[in-house]
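User: Second chain of the day. Same drill as before.
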Amino acid sequence: MFDKKKLTVLLAAGLTLLLGPGAGHLILREWKKAIFFIFLAMALFSIIAINFISEVGRDAIMAVANMQGVPEMGKFKELYYKFQDENPKMILFFDIALSALWAYSIVDIFITAKMKGMFKKDAQKEDDNDENNNEN
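Assistant: Same format as last time:
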């Protein structure tokens, strides 16, 4: 029913769906695209993290951790919800940008697979094999 190439593409798409942009491109051995998508996702997370730290202040974040370095999640959630309430446009931008990147990464896996010829129909494969046999 499925050949090995199609299963590889589905595995790549599933891995991207579960782990994030760029993960499936590693399965397809598309190293440059994988690095590109991973870098973009990290850049988005960095932007939101930098804005969060600058908004609430480094000292406030350090105050969340007690002396043993174990964070008190209740205080951290309070800081985050405050940040979220004060910056709804930034959170919306982050959500839309990351969702679009994630979705395009999955679509790009199928585009790349098609360009590599991983989705040839069985009839096309037989025709290609017949042509190769006739040439020999």
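Residues 24 and 40 are 15 Å apart (CA to CA).

User: Great, on to the next one.
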